[in-house]
Amino acid sequence: MNKKGFTLIELLGVIVVMGIILTITSVSVNKILNQSREARARIEEDNLRDSAVSYVKGEKIILTRCTPGYEVSNVTDIGECRMTIKVSDLTDKNYFDDKSNSCNRDASIVIYRYVDPNSEVDEYRAFVAEGTCE
């Protein structure tokens, strides 16, 4: 008797191979999605820095000149040449538009007046803690 079709073993083999391929693909897709979320968060944090500097310039806030080379490394740094604002301050005054709603509105941003010790370039910079945006 000549039967056409697949045996149970052949069907199980195909299902196992498809399961392996699906597992490998889903792991790769999840890795790519996580990397893109992290990249988006870094971009949002960069935008926050730029918005904070624009805020200080737009509101005509003048900070005292920092010691050359002074940089802020966390939100608790203290000094006369810096100020702290919240993300919500930037969004409420339309300096930052959090379209993806991924940034913590209560997070602090430190704006400070950076003076390059070599060239004496004097500019405003902002420190945004990593993880402020998700």
Task: Provide structural commentary.
With 134 residues, the chain is an alpha+beta fold. It has one domain. Helices cover 43% and strands 15% of the residues. The chain contains two helices and three strands. It has helices spanning 8-58, 87-92, and strands at 82-86, 108-115, 122-128. Strands 1-2-3 form a three-stranded antiparallel beta sheet. A hairpin with a 6-residue loop joins strand 2 (108-115) and strand 3 (122-128). It is elongated, with a radius of gyration of 26 Å. It starts with 7 loop residues before the first helix and ends in a 6-residue tail after the last strand. The model has no long low-confidence stretch (mean pLDDT 91).
What are the key terms here?
single chain, 134 residues, alpha+beta, three-stranded antiparallel β-sheet, 2 helices, 43% helix, elongated
